[in-house]
Each structure stands twice: as C-alpha cells, then as structure tokens.
Amino acid sequence: MPFYLADYHVHTRFSFDSEETIGAIRKMAAARGLTEVCITDHFSVNPEDKSYGLYPYRKAYEEYLRDSAGEGPAVRFGLEIGEGQYRRAVLEDFLAQADYDFIIGSVHNIGDITIRQTIRERGVDYAFDAYYDEVLGLAEEGDYDVLGHLDLINRYAWDEQGIYRLDAYTHQIDAVLKAVIRRGRGIEVNTSSLYKNCRQFMPNPWIVARFRELGGQIVTLGSDAHSAGRVGDGLAEAAALLKSCGFEAAAAFEKRRPRLWALEKFDSER
Ligand SMILES: [Zn+2]
Ligand SMILES: [Zn+2]
Questions:
Q1: 31 CA from centroid of ligand 2 (Å)
Q2: How far is the CA of 31 from the centre of ligand 1 (A)?
Q3: Which of 112, 183, 254, 260 is geometrically suited to a Cys-Cys bond with 249, CB 3.0 to 4.6 A?
Q4: Rounded to 5 degrees, what are φ and ψ at 27?
C-alpha cells in the first residue's frame, strides 16, 4: 500500500437505496489502494423516513463478519443514522443490541419531510433556517461519531434553485461545530457532491477550515458510494483539503473509538 486511505461512508444492499455487496466493495477498495473501508448503511427510527424498517441488522452483520475476514483492506461495521436526535429511547434500544465501529449522524429530513421537498414546498429561506436548526439539534443531542455531509442543503438548493449559500449561516454553523467539539465528536468530508451539480465538498472547505480553527480534531473522509464503482472517489482530494486546512491526520474508528492516520503523503495542492 503506498499510503493510508480510509473510506468511511459506503452503502451496501442493506441500505434501501443500494444493491451492492460488502464483498464487491472490499474488492474495489483493494483495487483502488484503500487501506480501510467502513460500511455505513442507512438507518432511521422515524416511520416517515424512506429507510424505515428496511435495514436488516442481523443479515448485515452476518455478511460483514463473513466478508471482512482474511486478506485485503480492513472493513469496519458502521451505520448512517438519520435525525438521531429524535426517538432517542428507541435508538438506544437498537444500538444496545448491535456492535458498531462507527456512526455517522445525518440530517436528511426537516421534520418528516425530505430536504428537497421542503425547499419545494416552503421555499429556500425557510428550508435553510430549519435545516440548520435540525443539524444543531443533532449535534447537541444525537448519538454519533461524526456529523454527515454537514451542509447537504446546499447541494439540494443548488439543484432546485441555483442557490448555494457560502457564508450566510456562519452563526448557526459555528454553534454546530462548537457542539461537536464540546462533545468530543467529529465531522466528515463527504466527496459525493463533487460529482453532483454543485461540484463541491460537503461541507464546503471553509467549514472544514473553521472546524480546525475552533479546535476540531476528528474528521473522517467518505465517498458516500452506493455502488462499488464509486468507492474511494475523491478521497485523495479530500485528504489534500484536510491538509490544506491545517489537519495533520484524518480519523478511522474501531468500536466507536477514533484512531488517527497521518496525512503527510498527501499534497495540499488540489
Ligand atoms: Zn446521508
Ligand atoms: Zn450516505
């Protein structure tokens, strides 16, 4: 392996919106020179969410145990939980019987409505305000290791109305980042949006730099791949971004404990 590179946001057929196997993901991770990959299938305890009731924990865990053994990149077992600040008791019950290495906390909905639908029905100003309120609630109350795609609303606002707000929500974003840091948690740099219309990291690089400035230390890199062909996409660029923001290491997780891997091999030029 030339250097350490870990993809900490990958979906498999145990997500409602993917058909990929863990084996195929691991094979692709090896072909692309990744050292580690973490499976993070969708899970929600909100009956209105698209993923509700569609995550078969036992099957996912069995396949993980089978396909993560032997030679090849390390595979970790994680989860992407939507709006984990709500229905906390149900979530706690679920997590108590499970054995995860890593949890991404994400906001996909505002109340019971998807972000995209909220923009269409309530307008972009309402949607931005309400979105960052949800993210702050999650940052303060949720059970997560890193916050997923922190400014996801920019991707959808760009798709829907050509709007991308770079610094209009600095106050809310600062509050979110401070809550994350206070709780000893982290954020991710999600590269999937580099290949969408807005062609930008999630969150925007200024948020990553701000996280560092405020004292943030834990950042994972994730492709958010829903098929093996996308595993590792944009990760070297994300590692370079982290380095240019002053980070010396990115994070990996085992049994929900962070472990840092050095970024020294990555050029800070994008
Ligand atoms: Zn997500
Ligand atoms: Zn995802």
A1: 22
A2: 25
A3: 260
A4: -60, -45
